[in-house]
């Protein structure tokens, strides 16, 4: 089962209007976000809607938000929802309003449409949509915008690399058309980050009033975001810590901003799935490390397996030690690590391509491990078993210990593999 995350991703470099200068890395940013979801978080392709350039008209974006998210019966309450936009932002002056309307610029922004000028998707309209979405699907919603809504300084040298454009022809009345029509004027006009929403989290590439920039390598925010995501153990890192890391990566000239409903984890804790390549290890004071894989599973004497702090897909999981196998039996093996400093609770990564370990063999290994756990249960029933894994559990631990049950008592994590 893939991660329960659904996404609408939009990237626009080229615009229909000749008055809007084109950008150069928004569509690539969108593609990279899609690859991160699919390759790192194992989100199935059909759970991601991707709209690039001329496909990202206002009508198509609004239709996709409705069909892929709001009216999608596959989304269950509490599932993670991501709406990502990379492209120009803009603003429209609003008569009798204290502030202009902030809008996202679709491909046909500020051009003639069937109902008048296309004036973009306003913060007010999108906020109304997200309120309706949260009532139907829960508030595990993240709106991520690599755009800005304030014009750059008149003499800015990086004018062409700033993701903002002026709106010259569309007016506020044009915002009241479309599937995500902007609600009529209220007591106050609000921007994307103007208050603490309880329906969703908003993450923008820069602070209100600042500018979002891009380069050939991508948007400054998106490239930093993806680099941090791929180098951080997401399952044990708080959302605020992630944003601090992104801020440090981006530098002083541009700082990301977030507001609204801030959850403990990204997407309110992505439902990380377990990686079949990782097998829980047991420690024995005499035999060293025992792994429930043996000659029947392609393990040979002298093989080297790396040890890792967890077994989650999509969360940075570097090797913390290497174990050399010295004793091989049909269904299990034993070895000793090259260093004495590593956590008691860890997983051995099985190099499938080196040992020809098929899924069927791995399934047998899991079954053997469960069987061995039951066999040892009575003799170790008085010992507490950890039900969670945290990076803090790994500090100051060594491999010198008695035989213990590890990896969340194994049943919780491994039973899904046998389905």
Automatic annotation (TrEMBL):
Which UniProt keywords are given for this protein, alphabetically ordered? Apoptosis, Hydrolase, Protease, Thiol protease
Q: Which SUPFAM superfamilies match?
A: Caspase-like (SSF52129)
Tell me, what's a Pfam family for it? Peptidase_C14
InterPro entries the record matches? Caspase-like_dom_sf, Metacaspase, Pept_C14_caspase
Q: What is this protein called?
A: Peptidase C14 caspase domain-containing protein
Q: Can you cite a GO biological process for this protein? A: proteolysis
Entry keyword Hydrolase: yes
């Amino acid at each position: 089962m893939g991660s329960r995350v659904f996404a609408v991703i939009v990237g626009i470099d080229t615009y229909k209007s000749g008055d809007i200068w084109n950008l150069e890395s928004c569509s690539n940013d969108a593609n990279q976000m899609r690859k991160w979801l699919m390759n790192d978080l194992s989100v199935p392709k059909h759970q991601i809607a991707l709209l690039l350039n001329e496909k990202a008209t206002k009508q198509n974006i609004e239709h996709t938000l409705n069909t892929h998210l709001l009216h999608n019966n596959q989304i269950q309450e509490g599932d993670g929802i991501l709406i990502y936009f990379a492209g120009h932002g803009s603003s429209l002056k609003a008569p009798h309003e204290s502030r202009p309307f902030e809008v996202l610029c679709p491909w046909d922004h500020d051009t003639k449409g069937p109902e008048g000028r296309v004036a973009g998707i306003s913060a007010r309209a999108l906020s109304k949509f997200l309120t309706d979405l949260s009532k139907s699907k829960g508030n595990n919603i993240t709106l991520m915008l690599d755009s800005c809504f304030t014009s750059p300084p008149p003499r800015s040298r990086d004018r062409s690399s700033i993701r903002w454009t002026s709106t010259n022809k569309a007016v506020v009345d044009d915002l009241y058309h479309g599937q995500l029509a902007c609600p009529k004027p209220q007591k106050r006009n609000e921007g994307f980050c103007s208050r603490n929403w309880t329906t969703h989290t908003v993450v923008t590439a820069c602070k209100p009033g600042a500018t979002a920039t891009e380069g050939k390598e991508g948007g400054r925010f998106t490239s930093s975001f993806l680099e941090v995501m791929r180098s951080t153990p997401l399952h044990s890192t708080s959302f605020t810590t992630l944003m601090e890391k992104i801020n440090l990566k981006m530098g002083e000239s541009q700082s990301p901003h977030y507001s609204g409903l801030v959850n403990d984890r990204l997407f309110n804790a992505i439902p990380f799935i377990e990686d079949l390549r990782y097998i829980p290890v047991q420690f024995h004071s005499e035999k060293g490390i025992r792994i429930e894989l043996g000659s029947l599973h392609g393990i040979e004497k002298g093989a080297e397996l790396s040890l890792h702090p967890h077994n989650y897909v999509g969360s940075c999981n570097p090797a913390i030690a290497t174990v050399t196998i010295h004793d091989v039996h049909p269904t299990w093996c034993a070895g000793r690590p090259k260093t004495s400093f590593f956590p008691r609770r860890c997983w051995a990564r099985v190099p499938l391509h080196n040992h020809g370990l098929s899924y069927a063999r791995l399934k047998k290994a899991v079954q053997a491990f469960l069987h061995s756990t039951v066999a040892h249960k009575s003799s170790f029933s008085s010992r507490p078993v950890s039900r969670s894994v945290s990076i803090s559990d790994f500090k100051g631990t060594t491999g010198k210990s008695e035989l213990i049950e590890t990896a969340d008592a194994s049943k919780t994590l491994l039973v899904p593999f046998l389905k």
